[in-house]
Amino acid sequence: MIAIISAGIAPGLALLSYFYLKDQYESEPFYLVFRSFIFGALLVFPIMFIQYVLEVEMVFNSDFLYTFVAVGLLEEFFKWFILFFTIYQHVQFDEHYDGIVYGVSVSLGFATLENILYLFANGVEYAIGRAILPVSSHALFGVIMGYYLGKGKFSQGESRKKWIFLSWSLPILLHSIYDSILLTYLNWRYIMLPFMLFLWWFALHKAKKAKQKLTETMLP
After folding, report:
1. In whole angstroms, what is the distance from residue 139 CA to residue 11 CA?
2. Which of 90, 115, 89, 119 is nearest to 16 (CA)?
């Protein structure tokens, strides 16, 4: 049991620490990051229940609709909902990069508990593969969500609406593509590799841009 819990928690904490420590000038309060992590974890149970009902009732007659609505839209929208209504207006959300810290925190809270439950059900031998794909992809979706939410927070007028729209729609799209690759293609590994490389590049590029904005604001 200890081995499974440790293997389930380790990748999420490692990724969260990486993005948290990138905030060099004014690290976010630990309690607020931890709270976001817990909120993300608590989302697992209602989302799993809704997904179970949708599957049992056979609401969707195609894999594409199932992955888009029951997985991509459901998971990413509720993570965004938590982020928007618990963090977006918070006084501590005062820098562009902060959105990435909290986005990653909520996403990795969800991914970590989901990972632990999966390893309990299927065995610790899946820990490495889960760390490379599902856990890291959730973190990267969180980076993208947080980046555009930060853009929206510090923009005005119509551009604010555009960035907030992208903060939930783009992670939903990317998550749906990720799951479609897993469910649709027999040789999914050959497609997943370039997709994950793109996802890492895209997310890290956004994190770098947010960090540059942070550096610019700190210069005299």
Report:
1. 10
2. 115
pTM of the model: 0.93
Distance CA 68, CA 75 (A): 10
DSSP 70-98: IIIIHHHHHHHHHHHHHTTT-TT--STTH
User: Cα–Cα distance between 48 and 30 in angstroms, integer?
Assistant: 28
State the Cα–Cα distance between residues 135 and 70, nearest whole angstrom.
Answer: 18
187 alpha-carbon distance from chain centroid: 25
Nearest to 101 by CA among 182, 24, 42, 2: 24
Region of 123 on the Ramachandran plot (φ > 0 left; ψ -120 to 50 alpha; else beta): left
* Residue closest to 66 by CA, chosen among 145, 183, 162: 183
Q: Are 67 and 114 in contact (CB under 8 A)?
A: no
CB 183 within 8 A of CB 55: no
Contact 107, 172 (CB under 8 A): no
The amino acid occupying position 94 is: D
The pLDDT tens digits along the chain (220 residues) read 888 899 999 999 999 999 998 876 678 899 999 999 999 999 999 999 999 999 888 888 887 888 899 999 999 999 999 999 999 989 889 888 999 999 999 999 999 999 999 999 999 999 999 999 999 999 999 999 999 999 999 888 888 999 999 999 999 999 999 998 988 777 888 899 999 999 999 999 999 998 887 655 554 5
